[in-house]
Amino acid sequence: MSLKKTVGPLLLAAAALGAASAAQADTEVLIRPFNMTLNGVEFYRADTVLWEKDGGSFNLDSALLFEHNPWGPGAWGDEWGSVEAYRHGQLVGSKDVTLQFDAPPTRYSFNWTDIDLVLFRSGASSDGTFLAVSDMVGAGITQAQTVPEPSSYALLLGGLGLIGGVARRRRQR
C-alpha cells in the first residue's frame, strides 16, 4: 500500500473535521434568559429560546419537552407550559402543553414554517421548575456543534505521523 493511498484519506478526514468545527450555526439556543429583546420580541422570562441570529428563518417541526421538578416526583400534579413562534416580531403560532413532572420527555409537533424565534415557557418558574427542551427538528435548525479540543488535533497529527513512519519503513524494506 502506497503512502498516498494511506495518508490521503486521513488528510481528507482531517480537513473535513476542521471545516465542521469552523462552521457557524445560524440558530442559537438560550437557556433561561431574562428581560431580553430578540428579533423584535421583548420578553421577561423564558425557559428556552431558539432564535435565528442572522436575519433568516427556520422551521420547527417537533421537539422533545420535559418538565423538571427540583422538589422530587409526586410533589405536584401536571404542569402546563406554552410554546410561542414569532416571525419578524409578530406572533404566528402558539401551543399550550401539559406535562407531568419528571415523566419521560414527550415529543410535541409544531409544524411551524418561516419563523425566527420560539419561546418555550413553563407555567411555573419561581418555584425552581423549568421546561427543558431537546432534539428540536426542522429545516434550518442547527444543533450545537462540538469544537474539538487542541489535544484532539495533536492526537490526529500523532496518528498521521505514526502511519507515515510505518509506511516509510515498509517502503525502505
Automatic annotation (TrEMBL):
The keyword DNA-binding does not apply. Residues 146-171 form the Ice-binding protein C-terminal domain. Keywords: Signal. The keyword Zinc does not apply. Residues 1-25 form the signal peptide. InterPro entries: Ice-binding_C (IPR013424). It holds the Pfam family PEP-CTERM. This is PEP-CTERM sorting domain-containing protein. It comes from Roseateles aquae. The lineage of its organism: Bacteria, Pseudomonadati, Pseudomonadota, Betaproteobacteria, Burkholderiales.
